[in-house]
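Annex B, item 7. Sequence and structure tokens for protein A, then protein B.
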Amino acid sequence: MSTRKHVAFIADSLDNAHRFQQAFARLGVEVSAGSTMQIDKLLDPAAPCDCAVFEARGRARAFEARVRALAQEAGAGLLLVIDEADFDALEPPFAEHCDYVAHGAGVGECVMRLRRLLWSDRAESPTGVIAVDTLSINLATYQVTVAGEPVDFTYLEYALLAFLASHPGRTFSRDALLQRVWGFEYYGGSRTVDVHVRRIRAKLGPEISQRLETVRGVGYLWSA
């Protein structure tokens, strides 16, 4: 993440502004913000952004096709903020380099989805899939398989597994994982990470789970 990324934030309300402001600060990205009246300026191919966040709610939904087209033309990722009820209308396959987040989602989830669009599926894992032995983590569809069999994870279990597997060989403290995966708004004890790690290991099975190592007195790492 040596090159600072640029994100365009497009919204006609302030409902999500504070939440995403925190997410952008944590990611260290530059931000240009405006309403749907400024779409052409914010998504100008002559000065492309790396990702666009568009609040596709209410009357702004009428601009969604235009935002998609401009983002695709600029080669930018696209994160759509939609009402939870609208998820029922989504059908795979989803557009490449596009993701969705529900209105009111926590900062931690917004950070994870932005990070995937800005870095994970393009630089750290060009195919969008992390494959280790018989384990496969699809960063685009959030699907995990072991020996070809799907494994069901809760959102936080998946987020923790995907984050550690995306940074092999790096040790993260429990507090760091809470900040990077759960988000700053999480006020529980750091030992909750241990609970999720135990669940992940149980679901991965004895062979794969050995890669999720405990570093005594520090935290956890995913062995390369």
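Protein B:
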Amino acid sequence: MSETTIAGYDYGRVGPSPVGKDDLDALKAAVLFGPEDEAALRRAGEVLGEQVEAILDVWYAFVAANPPLVAAFGGPEGEPVTTYLDRVRPRFGQWIKDTCLRPYDEAWLAYQEEIAERHTPAKKNKTDHAPSVDHVPLRYLIALISPITLTVRDFLARGERPAAEVDAMQEAWRKAVILQVALWARPYAPQLW
């Protein structure tokens, strides 16, 4: 999956984030995300990169089994908009790679803001012209931290690495997901962020 062929993947081509480096550094400190986590994420990216489609299969099955989650990709009657789900999938896969392999710099921060806005009425459905609901409820972005972090462990363990290294990669992944969800919450309540 080449990022240059992913429809709607605009990394490096979006406006700047209103979140500055100092805020990002404070969030990293709040989730205890440090250089050892960055290194563990790079190793995780090596392991997960070959398994992206299998990971997405697990996540999509989880969403499909939970009607409130399906509703975020649903039409007016609540039925899933399969073309929308299909278009989001490659970007979701690229997000896995970006989480592990991109430097957490201004370009990354700007794209986190873009992802965040694509979950809110500001930009939901605009990238894919999807006939879907106008936002993803914030409570589900937060709640999805659990399955998005827990399910990755089995994939990390397939890399035939020592258990301590798998633990470190899992912990770095968890911190990175929490960090991103905290950033994605900003557009939901900017005055309180």
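Comment on protein B: The radius of gyration is 16 Å.
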